[in-house]
Amino acid sequence: MRASLWKPRTNPGFDGVGKKGISWLAEVTKTGITVATEVLFPEQVSLVLKIIEKKGNPEKILFWLGARNQNHRLQRLIALKIKKEAPPQVKLLIKNQPWLDEDHWLGIVGHVLGSGISPERVILCHRGFSPNGGENPDNMRNIPNYEMAMRVKKQTGLPMVIDPSHSGGSVSNVFKVVKEAKKYRFNGLMVEVHPCPEQAKTDKKQQLTFKELDKLLKIID
């Protein structure tokens, strides 16, 4: 279940519920569902683990490094914190950086694995690259580069999922990205869903309703 407690923002605004939301995630883990949340600093890893260990199931956590977190020292420290403090079932997902650069993407993986974390605990995620004023006929929020994603997957030997929400930026584009991604060997997807998207505090245009999620799952099948 995708549920970030801390949300980096392009402009100042709602930046997540923070610490108080960890107890909510703990309740979810007790149902057997794995919760996925973005972390910006190593201290947040420790905080999430500490509270969920007391109130839920600490084995049911997936942390992720977001596209904006391009401080390589923090990337290594977060991975090291997971290696040392989290149960072996806990994994780390890495999103690509916002700009189009294959070497940099591979570099992120290198920094993370340089912490000593097992590759078996690492998952990659393609969330597209910023258009930067270039051609963008479909008005994507971030333009996917499926071929590059597959090259990075092959070179690293790591599983690769796709984030059609942050690529598409709209419900129609989410469906478009998922249909296109079916042509490639992605290992899964992470998509944003909201019971009432128009009331969402962030990214409301790209969030699916539960009915739309049902339709999306039929496409995947």
Q: What is the fold's blueprint, element by element?
A:
Layout: H1 22-29, E1 35-38, H2 42-55, E2 61-65, H3 72-85, E3 91-95, H4 102-113, E4 122-126, H5 146-156, E5 160-162, H6 164-168, H7 171-181, E6 188-189, H8 210-220
What does this structure look like?
With 221 residues, this protein is α/β, with parallel strands linked by helices. It has a single domain (18-220), classed as Aldolase class I (TIM Barrel). The protein contains 8 helices and 6 strands, in the order H-E-H-E-H-E-H-E-H-E-H-H-E-H. The chain has helices at residues 22-29, 42-55, 72-85, 102-113, 146-156, 164-168, 171-181, 210-220, and strands spanning 35-38, 61-65, 91-95, 122-126, 160-162, 188-189. Strands 1-2-3-4-5-6 form a 6-stranded parallel β-sheet. Strand 2, helix 3 and strand 3 form a beta-alpha-beta unit. The longest helix has 14 residues, at 42-55. The protein is globular and about 50 Å long.
Architecture (CATH level 2) name: Alpha-Beta Barrel
Average pLDDT reading: 96
End-to-end gap: 20 Å
One letter per element, helices H and strands E, the order comes to HEHEHEHEHEHHEH
Strand order of the largest sheet: 1-2-3-4-5-6
Main beta sheet: 6 strands, parallel
Oligomer: single chain
- At the fourth level of CATH, the homologous superfamily is Aldolase class I
Helix content: 25-40%
Put simply, the count of helices is: 8
User: Which fold name fills CATH's third level, the topology?
Assistant: TIM Barrel
Number of strands: 6
CATH C-level category: Alpha Beta
Structural class by secondary-structure content: alpha/beta
Task: Name the poorly predicted regions.
Answer: none
- Roughly what fraction of the amino acids lie in strands? 5-15%
Structurally, the number of domains stands at 1
